[in-house]
Amino acid sequence: TAAARGVPGNATLTIALRTYVLVSAGEGHTCGLTSDGDVYCWGDNADGQLGDASNNPSSIPVLVSGGHEFAWVSAGSFHTCGTTTTGDVFCWGANANGQLGDNSNNLASAPVVVAGGRTWDQVDGGAGHTCGVESMTGDVYCWGLNSFGQLGDGTTNPTNAPLQVAGVQATAVSAGDFHSCSVDAVAGTAQCWGDDTAGELGDGPALGGGLPVFVASASPLASIDAGTAFTCSVDQTGEGLCWGINSLGELGNGTGVGSDVPVPVGGGLGFSSIDAGVEYACGISFTGDDGYCWGDNDAFQLGNGTGLGSGTPVLVSGALAFGSVSTGRAHTCAVTTDGDVYCWGLNLSGQLGDGTNFNSATPVRVVE
Questions:
Q1: What is the rounded CA–CA span in Å between residue 363 and residue 341?
Q2: Is the pLDDT of residue 169 over 60?
Q3: Can you tell me the mean pLDDT for 101-130?
């Protein structure tokens, strides 16, 4: 969209306003993809995760350097990755565990290309690792930290270049804190690998680990998102399902009891998407485009105007129509159907993007 603003004399200055198509929340930073293929980031930048070739934090969006045209972006805990329209993956930020995938362990405050020369569809950043889906083949690769087998190769050895996850082909992949999951939306199946101490792999009582296991879902799945010690999915009818730890209501079923297999999210809501964060999750309703969140709320990350946690979904304040939502460590951001980004929750590093460092219990608009 564009806004015409009057200026002295007869001239009219037209300022182009950014239209976002995707937003991704990390630990203390956030990144958004515009309809023009630009990526803007805001918040903490101690590890270069904003990608503007500096280490300066910013409470307003800054343009990622390099002039790349992006088709996807994903914020990990302290790093960020994105796919370009030509199918390359570029990453920037922390790299002590090799999560940038550039055959080094050097921090990068500007985008560096992931090694291997592959063409990618989608990429997802986790706490200390990254996973991506290769175009055409649907093969899944992961790289970075592997202390719990989250790279899916049956070992705990880290790698600073993409490593293929054996036996997995997918339409999308999600990197959590210490586990990873993929979904084949055509077949309706999902696989997870890595830490399973809380049942977050969803394969039942058998303790999974460093090799992929199938999620024990009774219904075909359309999407999946790996959080911290829990996972959420939406099946092909729009029902929300979660599994893993539930001590703070992460599963959204009102019980507080964990589960090693998928259980329905309470409230009778249908979802178009669910994003699992750190001890909480948020989703977009299938009808109405409303935002709902559940779980921990100690930093107002549920966005309902209170600091009270909830074991079942609560409506995000503001009567906004959302197209997608992303959960971080303790803040949440969402794109409206009009292409604006709103954020709420913790804001100590400026991760809400509203030009302040004040926490917010309700959605605030990211400044242009």
A1: 9
A2: yes
A3: 98
Query: To the nearest 10°, the Cα dihedral for 352, 357, 362, 363?
Result: -30
| Residue 3 reports pLDDT greater than 70 | no
What is residue 16's predicted lDDT score, i.e. its pLDDT?
56
Instruction: Fill in the amino acid letter for 42.
Output: W
Contacts of residue 191, defined as CB under 8 A and 6 or more positions apart, other chains included, come to: 168, 170, 181, 182, 212, 213, 214, 215
Q: What is the pLDDT of residue 17?
A: 83
Phi and psi of 271, rounded to 5°? -120, 145
Q: What pLDDT digit, counting tens, does each position of 182-219 carry?
A: 999 999 999 999 999 999 999 999 787 799 999 999 99
Beta-carbon contacts of 8 under 8 Å, excluding residues fewer than 6 positions away, are: none
Rounded to two decimals, the pTM is 0.95
- In 3-state terms the chain splits into helix, strand, coil percentages (rounded to 5) of 0, 45, 55
Residues in a beta bridge with 254: none
The token duo for 79 is 């790093």
Per-residue pLDDT tens over the stretch 221-273: 999 999 999 999 999 999 999 999 999 999 999 999 999 999 999 999 999 99
3-state secondary structure (DSSP) of residue 363: strand
Question: What is the C-alpha separation between 301 and 352, in angstroms, rounded?
Answer: 11
Question: Tens digit of pLDDT for each residue in 42-77?
Answer: 999 999 999 999 999 999 999 999 999 999 999 999
The answer to whether residues 77 and 27 touch, using CB atoms and an 8 Å cutoff, is yes
DSSP state of 270: B
> Any idea which residue has 């082909």 for tokens?
169
Q: How many DSSP H helices and E strands does the chain contain?
A: 0, 30
Pick from 93, 91, 32: nearest CA to 62: 32
CB 294 within 8 A of CB 346: no
Give the residue ranges of DSSP H helices in the chain: none
Tell me whether strands 213-214 and 189-194 are parallel, antiparallel or unpaired: antiparallel
